[in-house]
Amino acid sequence: MPKTQVSCPRCRAPIAAEIQQLFDLNTDPQAKQKLLSGSANMIQCPACGYQGIYPTPIVYHDPDKELLLTYFPPELAVALNQQEKMIGPLINQVVNNLAPEKRKAYLFQAKSMLTYQTLLETILQADGITKEMLEEQQKKMSLIQRLVSTPTAESRKEIMVQEEELIDETFFALLNRLVEASLSQGDKQSAQQLAVFQQELLTETKVGQKIQAQMKESQQAMTDLQNLAKDGLTREKLLELLVNSPSEIYTTTLIGMVRSGLDYEFFTMLSTKIDQSQDEAEKAKLSTLRDFLLDAVKQIDEQIQLEMKNAREMVEKIVAAPSIEAGLQQYGNQVNEFFVEAVQNALEEARKESDLDKITKLNQLNQMIEAANTPPEAIQFIEELLRTENDDQVKEKLNTNIGKVDDEFLQLLTGVISQSEEQGQQPQLVEKLKQIQKIALRAVMAKNLKG
Q1: Angle 163-169-175 from CA coordinates, rounded to 5°
Q2: What integer pLDDT is reported at residue 434 of this predicted model?
Q3: For 204-239, how does the pLDDT look when each residue is reduced to its tens digit (9 = 90+)?
Q4: Is 156 exposed, middle or buried (0-12, 13-18, 19+ CB in 10 A)?
Q5: Rounded distance between C-alpha atoms, residue 137 and residue 34, angstroms
């Protein structure tokens, strides 16, 4: 979102900030999260240090819940008729973005919220979240802000001990959303600071230690699956891995990675194993596993269908826009594998119908996706170095492309190594990256000496 120049509410100094007035879930599925996370319209004045939510008119729209809410900050002291003139175009935008058959009576009965807090509470109540639950979340937000403003790790540790009752799994989920919101706004400094606190919480609190243990179980499941796959993953091996699963987290991780392998043939094999078992305890265990797997697969498939439906609708909206660029800017906020597949399916249908205009637009959209997914040249070079068989080949490629090997490349390589370690990538991959880094450092030093 482009930045707008606004005035600090305290000292009136000019500030460049991202100000959003329309939060429409029809065009932006992340709109609710932006608003509820407290990150939307947050400003910080470099002149006086003021930090808070910038007072601006807001329109919130959730078509699934038939919810259209408006909020006008009272501190703006704008007359009612003028408020309607400012809010009107935003509501018109909501209506225009909806297909004609989805325009219902609620769109002409927008509910005015007297306070910002009432706006948030109304949104949450529509999701079944009570006022008590909201107050609990506010306490957690206050705790996060308190931790952020505490300078030393020792002092933060004392606060964690004092407030341990507030630090549960939903607290970590809230912290994750704040990190994601900071990254989406390009505020890497805040995201890094929050990530530091997150790591401290994982280490110092009981819930954090439990989450870490679950993460280790997930990592173990991925490692075991990768080891099995080296010699060829079969349904028999997968079944054995699931039968011997040490925990639900381990099982759930496997299901997410091998959904395509949990097919009719797999369940036939599992049912046969149940029927042939003579041990009642084993038969009950296998039957429970089958029920769990069937339910998990059903949930995954339902979610995939929903994602595909949303992706198809998004593609149609983008193609119907005045231009692909305008459509992407307005609707293309979730370009993922479902979206890419939806584009391919739409292109195939357009070819069958000989719809030349749609084919042209979809081809343009395809090209833009491919361009966006093409990694930077430096990353491509690192991938090329990873495909080499030995250190001599790495050295040869680095010397051949010595113009690409500079301080910026080394910093990027260091970042890739750190990220690979944090994500628990295969030790062999991390080790090869570190070896490439050593050879690259020597190559840079040699280049500098020659210079």
Answers
A1: 80
A2: 87
A3: 888 888 888 888 888 899 888 888 888 888 999 999
A4: buried
A5: 15
pTM: 0.54
Residue 421 CB-half CA count within 13 A: 10
Domain that holds residue 96: 4-129
Number of domains, the chain: 3
DSSP, collapsed to helix, strand or coil, labels residue 17 as strand
Q: Answer yes or no: is 230 within a domain.
A: no
The residue count of the chain comes to 451
**35 and 49 part of one domain:** yes
pLDDT bracket for residue 299 (50, 70, 90) = very high
Residues 95/107, Cβ–Cβ less than 8 Å: yes
**129 vs 131: CA distance, rounded Å:** 7
Residue 16 and residue 91 in one domain: yes
Q: How far apart are CA 336 and CA 414, in angstroms?
A: 27
Q: Is the dihedral of CA 311, 315, 321, 327 positive or negative?
A: positive
Residue 313, domain member (yes or no): no
For 155-164, how does the pLDDT look when each residue is reduced to its tens digit (9 = 90+)?
888 989 888 8
8 Å CB contact between 45 and 10:
yes
Cβ neighbours of residue 183 closer than 8 Å, sequence gap 6 or more: 191
Which residue in this structure is represented by tokens 């058959």? 101
pLDDT at residue number 181: 66
Residue 287 located in a structural domain = no
